[in-house]
Amino acid sequence: MRRLSVPSFAKINWTLRILGQRSDGYQQIRTIYQTVDLCDELVFETTSNREIELEIEGRKVASGKDNLLYQTADLLRQTTGSRAGIRIKLQKKIPVGAGLGGGSSNAALALLALNQLWDSKIGEKELVDLAVQLGSDVPFFLVGGTAVGWGRGTELVPLPDLPQQKSLLLLYPHLEISTREAYALGKWGTYGGTGKLTREWADTTMRDLLRAVGPKGDGWSFLANDFEDVLFAHYPVLVEAREALKKAGCERVMLCGSGSTLLGFGGDKQVKEAAAVMTRAGIGEIFCCRTLPRKHYRQILTNSGLLWL
User: Fold this and answer.
1) What is the pTM of this model?
2) Which residues are catalytic?
3) At what angle do helices 102-117 and 124-134 cross, to 10 degrees?
């Protein structure tokens, strides 16, 4: 029996721009990912019965073969020809349909953990290829920290860690919105561009991000999510939650990813005070968290026994 117990962290999107539908049916996006310290807990235990067993606690999510964790283990076995067994226990803390990437994070950590526990010896490039098959956000969680995403979101350029960790307030209004539903509600046009993800463009993006989230916060307009207009128009509860966060004292409020979670941020004191106000108001679930730099992300997982390539 071999065992690994690892945290599976959430993400936010500092920006999310939708550039139009590509010829392959996917939407072309430009985004900035950021890991945060809100996390699920995953335990992996090898077994001798050749089954993929999945135990879930905390939140209601898809079970069995419909769960992305199961699909990840199955894909790895198909890729390697292995018949090894695994028992996966998931303590689900990250809300579902929230735009926080919980399922994608679970899948990425499962790839790394099972590659290790099953001695699969799959290299970095092939692991990334498998992550792309599992979902658009999955490759990011093999990187962590701050990163530019392009294409489906699977083409990545890691950015330097922010100089200081930022305090964040997340509000989940008990509304599950799938990525497929979010895209279906909008009219995004057709993408016919040929732009490439370059280091120079990534460096410019980092400068803009630092202006927006730095002490002066003089570049708020850079922090934009193209799902906001669509989802706010369709779900009045999101408008109510946004206004409540602003009244509670958050400097900036924006939508997280393609889901329903709203992000408010400011100084440590502001975030704590806003969290107290929102908790009393009883509007959704409140999570106080901080941005998680790549260095810390990898160190935490390494300390949990996970081996990085």
Assistant:
1) 0.95
2) 11, 137
3) 140
